[in-house]
Design a protein that fits this description.
Elements (H helix, E strand, L loop, with lengths): L1 H21 L4 H22 L3 H31 L7 H23 L6 H25 L6
């Protein structure tokens, strides 16, 4: 249990250090790197059980959490825009979509009606979702994890 906690704490500290040095643009990337490091560090626990189900379950859960974070970024930016406060950069919003957060970003755009008039968001966020789905399909295909395989 303690090893699991340390395995989660150290990458998060590294992510915050990365965030401090590189600023707001890299916030989603820093969190994503921390999660990936944690997953790689604890992957041996999953491999010892010799089952792909747990690995895919963990990756699926990480994708759900990441899409919730991408949605939250759009919600925070929308609220700050309404209050005329400091905003999340457009690059950060797009990067969060391309780093496997396409569904959360698209839902954030549509449900919150945020960034819907910007042509780059109209094109790039759906493109990010398509690329995310292609990556998921390829991972499932090459790991032999489709239910019918």
């Amino acid at each position: 249990m303690v090893l699991g906690c340390c395995g989660l704490v150290f990458p998060l500290i590294g992510s915050f250090v990365f965030l401090i040095f590189f600023g707001n643009l890299c916030t989603p990337f820093a969190i994503f790197v921390g999660v990936l490091y944690y997953a790689r560090h604890n992957m041996t626990l999953f491999i010892r059980r010799n089952t792909m189900f747990y690995v895919l379950l963990a990756v699926g859960a990480a994708l759900v959490v990441w899409n919730i974070i991408a949605f939250a970024l759009y919600a925070i930016d929308k609220r700050r825009a309404e209050k005329k406060q400091w905003r999340i950069s457009e690059a950060t919003l797009l990067i969060s979509a391309f780093l496997m957060g396409g569904l959360g970003a698209l839902l954030g755009m549509r449900l919150l009606r945020h960034k819907t008039q910007h042509i780059q968001f109209k094109i790039l966020v759906p493109l990010a979702l398509v690329l995310n789905l292609v990556v998921i399909f390829l991972v499932l295909h090459f790991t032999g994890s489709f239910p019918w395989q």
